[in-house]
Amino acid sequence: MTRFTFAALVLGTYLLYVDGKTSFIKDMKTDVPFPPVNTQNVPGIPEGHLRPLGWQRKPEGKVREEKDALSPSTFYIRYVKTGRPAVMRGVLKEAAVTEKWEEDNYLKEKYGMLNMTITVKKEVMNRDPHTTKRRMLFRKFLMDYKYENWYLTSTVHEVMRKELPLPDVLSCGTYRDRLTEAEVWMSSGGTASLLHSHGDHNVHCVLDGRKDFILIEDQYQSVFNFEPTYPNSGSGHSPMDMDMINAYKNPKIAETPWVWSTLWQGDCIFVPAGYLHQVRAFGRSISYTVQFAPSVAYESLDCPDESGSGKRKKKEKKASKGDAEPEAENKKLSLADVEFMWTYSDGEMRLSDRALVPRSLRRLLLLLLRDGDQLHRDQFVHFYEDAHAHEANLTPTPDEVFHLMTPNNARVHLSRDEILALSENRLQSVCELLNKKEARVKDEL
């Protein structure tokens, strides 16, 4: 090897590490077989050894599918209440966004100047790949994501919400009032997530491309050495390399049942809180998720009856006044029509409510509680740090702010009854600290 060749190799490796560059357009094919069919078993070697998750045993079957529209109440009874995943085929096939967002030029013209959070995957020979977060203009991402090891994973920007439909199953009832966050995902080539879970329920909808899902019940967390995001978070991930399972070290994976589904444009999947899942994308892929907090009960007072008669009479009365009002009532809701706990603007995730009062703060605390009986200090501390964009040296500390609401500094949780009984004065003191965080640092690109 000449000195010049060696120097070029070193420089190329350095640039790959720093920039995550691939130099060539990535493989955009979407015809990858799934679930896998292992036909090359070698005697003495466990099935699926050093292969991706799913090769170690055959699936139990497909995730249950619904091909007809579900009412919010039926969705709750069949799936949310029972904690079962479900696929809703073609529920967004008529949505205009599925056609518009097929074109990068459309996204570049409409949203190109927005600051977005990008994940950069870096790979170096003989080292495990790792990822870093980076903020950049959306137009920069769109220009290079087919060549770079980049993918978009970000809370949906405020100005994007109007184009994204709210799934009909969340359009009324309890869960419309328990929406926590909407995220947008975009990538090219083959990408695969960690095996992970969320503390909230989520509905994941594909706008373009293909996504494969592997789903596993949460009782099998120990098989995958699951790690919580933080104590009492309700979410977590497996540190295992899901692209290369060591079947000798992890023999129980071959005994773990799993189900699967492949989603295409217009399809949505419901993933219950706590359910383990891995997501793989192929080609150009865009999707978004709507997360909503589990609740102890469900109410459907503002929903039409299953028969459709619940609001039919009201519509008939309105029809006599003209056609415009009934049409407005039938209008599909977008993410801009509902309130989330979190939003994204000025390059950062932030609380949607920027002027909290005791009543609205109490509501947020109950959302953090989900369907549990105790709000742990760790949950509140994480929430408070997120609300302050993880600033260093917060004064007072998040722990001290939590204890503004507790009977004494030794307490590490608040019960549901205690949250409901918190005085206006105590809540107001926390509101003032959260409302102070208004100025945001501008992105440097």
TrEMBL record:
> Source species, please?
Dreissena polymorpha (Zebra mussel)
- Report the leader peptide range: 1-20
Q: What is this protein called?
A: JmjC domain-containing protein
Keyword annotations of the record: Signal
The protein's superkingdom reads: Eukaryota
> Ranges of Basic and acidic residues compositional bias?
319-330
Q: SUPFAM superfamilies from the entry?
A: Clavaminate synthase-like
Please state every residue range assigned to the domain named JmjC.
144-309
Q: Where is this region: Disordered?
A: 302-330
